[in-house]
């Protein structure tokens, strides 16, 4: 049964008619992290120092040319932006060609998994403004060393498990929680995450785990408020390792025991 809140949103199970809206929401949710990642990377003291050094080199080589200085500094900034964009775009395309390619088969047809959408009613029409998914990991199941991000998208990770589960070792992964930009800060992200926690509790999972990327500070703050704690951090984004180093993006593993 759909859940409603004060902002006229409802949360229900995914249907095949949601395919286009969910794919669009997913693309936008992932790629919108490129700019925050870029500005976060460029504000790092090391990158600031390199940008100033390169600009100075351009100034000298150009015969005291301010234009040359700006051009050299801009080239460095462009490289950092490209690295950030490549990481998130690769993640988006990979997910769209794997689990997101057939949500019905990969989530709804598996009783251990779930996929929900959040709707908003606008002029009598319902619009998809959020999504969340859970994949169940049964005791002894190997995940292949790959983990995926949560809220509004993120990067893939490969952090080792560091927590021991009770019972049969079953737990849930939260690969996706995305809310459209216009509907944020209204509690919808918390509701979607709570929906996932409730599902995990019903399935008997011991905990819910997720990965989020370091530029997603709002996501990390939300999860902390909901009781998640960071259990690991690494820089394996499955992109070119130099891109990851230049973009300075880390993957944070966060978990909550149920």
- What is the spatial order of strands in the main beta sheet? 1-2-3-4-5-6-8-7
**N-to-C series of helices and strands:** EEHHHHHEEEHEHEHE
**Which word captures the global form?**
elongated
The averaged pLDDT comes out at: 86
Q: How many individual β-strands?
A: 8
Beta-strand residue percentage = 15-25%
The multimeric state of the shown protein is: single chain
Structural class: alpha+beta
Share of residues in helices = 40-55%
Number of helices: 8
Give a quick account of the main beta sheet: strands, pairing sense, barrel closure: 8 strands, mixed
Low-confidence stretches: 1-6, 142-163
- Rg to the nearest angstrom? 20 Å
Structure description:
- With 258 residues, the chain is of the alpha+beta class.
- The chain contains eight helices and eight strands; from the N terminus they run ββαααααβββαβαβαβ.
- The chain has helices spanning 19-31, 34-42, 45-61, 66-96, 103-108, 188-203, 217-225, 241-247, and strands at residues 3-4, 9-13, 114-122, 125-137, 171-179, 207-213, 229-234, 251-257.
- The protein has an eight-stranded mixed sheet, sandwiched between helices.
- Strand 1 and strand 2 form a beta hairpin.
- The chain is elongated.
- The two termini are 23 Å apart.
- Residues 1-6 and 142-163 have low confidence and may be disordered.
